[in-house]
Amino acid sequence: MKSYRKELWFETKTRRAFINITPQVEAALRESGIKEGLLLCNAMHITASVFINDDESGLHHDFETWLEKLAPEKPYEQYRHNGFEDNADAHLKRTIMGREVVVAVTNGQLDLGPWEQIFYGEFDGKRRKRVLIKIIGE
Amino acid sequence: MKSYRKELWFETKTRRAFINITPQVEAALRESGIKEGLLLCNAMHITASVFINDDESGLHHDFETWLEKLAPEKPYEQYRHNGFEDNADAHLKRTIMGREVVVAVTNGQLDLGPWEQIFYGEFDGKRRKRVLIKIIGE
Amino acid sequence: MKSYRKELWFETKTRRAFINITPQVEAALRESGIKEGLLLCNAMHITASVFINDDESGLHHDFETWLEKLAPEKPYEQYRHNGFEDNADAHLKRTIMGREVVVAVTNGQLDLGPWEQIFYGEFDGKRRKRVLIKIIGE
């Protein structure tokens, strides 16, 4: 069994952002040399997400509006977590979007459906944060 | 290390549906011959879901009502994604229900709790769509 | 390839509770002797959750309030699942929080970010329920 580990680092200019990281995940898989196995990709921070969906800007706008409706950023005082911090909404938004994805590796490729793309979802940005890629297989 | 891959295909007659796929996943596991490992089961489409919950029709009705409240299908114009498409709500509903499950394989069986059943959740049906099963182990 | 399996048992005194299980998961990993691989930790019950977030009591209070807003426990009659049962809300709350986490194992450690902690989320407690840990690797 082979295993491979890589971190991706991000620092977004806005509080919230969606970044398509499929090319970086594919590059990590090539570097690993693993042909058959499972790939885990997870946010290492609890106010960020890794998820799979469509790379379509209208949809990303809909996600932003929808998450603000389900877990609004303001007023900050509505959340007990917000004393020294102001990011309680980011913990909730990331919960909706998910921490991680597990993707099959087949013939050395990410075994994704036709429109599946892997995204980093940032909900409390403007600082350096990490994503972990771990691959096991042969 | 062994690995095994299978696709399941679906074409639901309704826009939304929940289908218990536990028997097909068990059949795939038997066919793989894998006794100890991890099984990934994921929707390959971004308007569908694979999730684990109870096979109880009242609960499925509750899921439908609840998802329509959290991410209503109509009016279509409320979503920017809906230009040529009308399925933005399906992307959001699938986000709530999740893309994938990872299930332990122990002694050649799906290592599920007493009421755990695996479902395909369709949110934009009436066309052919796929689920991926990938198993690694020994 | 090595594999390892362990169950953790819980019986909470309240209907809902969040329990930090990171120490038990770390102990299981040490016992397994696995140095590189993937660890699955999932609720075996469909009204409970395993998730990763911050060990901060204000945030846990926010989760409780937020989940009650998204999927209220009462009135029980609002859910069709609630005939002999009264736990439909617990099925919905667990859907938001997630069934499982997959964590990378690196150098014999849980490969977690600085604030990542693993929680058992109970939404229909006061009875014995289980979490499964399955680890594969080398």
From TrEMBL, chains A, B, C:
It holds the Pfam family YjbQ. SUPFAM superfamilies: YjbQ-like (SSF111038). InterPro entries: UPF0047_YjbQ-like (IPR001602), YjbQ-like_sf (IPR035917). It comes from the Bacteria. NCBIfam families: TIGR00149_YjbQ (TIGR00149). This is Secondary thiamine-phosphate synthase enzyme. It comes from Carboxydocella sporoproducens DSM 16521.
